[in-house]
Amino acid sequence: xxxxxxxxxxxxxxxxxxxxxxxxxxxxxxxxxxxxxxxxxxxxxxxxxxxxxxxxxxxxxxxxxxxxxxxxxxxxxxxxxxxxxxxxxxxxxxxxxxxxxxxxxxxxxxxxxxxxxxxxxxxxxxxxxxxxxxxxxxxxxxxxxxxxxxxxxxxxxxxxxxxxxxxxxxxxxxxxxxxxxxxxxxxxxxxxxxxxxxxxxxxxxxxxxxxxxxxxxxxxxxxxxxxxxxxxxxxxxxxxxxxxxxxxxxxxxxxxxxxxxxxxxxxxxxxxxxxxxxxxxxxxxxxxxxxxxxxxxxxxxxxxxxxxxxxxxxxxxxxxxxxxx
Length: 325
Ligand code: GLU
Fold this sequence. Notes:
By secondary structure, the protein is α/β, with parallel strands linked by helices.
């Protein structure tokens, strides 16, 4: 095993329900990559989104990860515990003029904005509140509304480009797709786009491995890190797992959760071996545990496209490439 103690990978689940096969595959790949480089793996529970967080889900997520055969170094970090640091970062960005308070309602934005387009279908924010209020207090006093905080995105900057270990060169045109995006919510909590990169930096993460649906977020988060004067970790975005009918697992109700698979007698070795086969490892013979696939793992062999599950037996032989990709 290469000795590179500086590599720090991370697992960053949201406690919004049980983990499914797509999560399992991304987490295995993140863990294999860090461990194969002799690195550490930190765990962060992304429990900021109060409405989506389910009571008791954190324990179940920890149980699912451990059942899968994954481990991590140190105590899990609960993102809600980082609220003071998040607030401090938001205040500092506003104070430096790199972010600003916004009192627009969703309705006002959709009335003022152009048609939705761009990488996530969101409407680029038309910039209504940019330069309008000198401080959060002033915005609140002038309107009686609780302001959100938006990062000021330079419209002339062009796409944010980064090298992704799996997807290759990525270019995310944040100004065109989102404009000045929300980094602080009206309820005073940090938005995902601020909390995640800031906490990655706090946990000294050097390698972010996660689902390819987050490539657009990677562009936004690179801008947040740049504004905060922090380094952008290496990026690797894993193609999503699709059901046999081509749907994203997250979109299917009760979609192949680890709990469900475990209940029907599927072993964690079987899941690890299926995930290993999906990244080009030869998986002949008896299924092997997650730890057996560390040696020889490299992100370079992870395909960029989605992985489609076999129709009869989801963990059966994998199609090499889904027909429409
Ligand atoms: N917590 C996010 C999720 O479970 C992942 C965030 C990230 O990896 O940046 O979808």
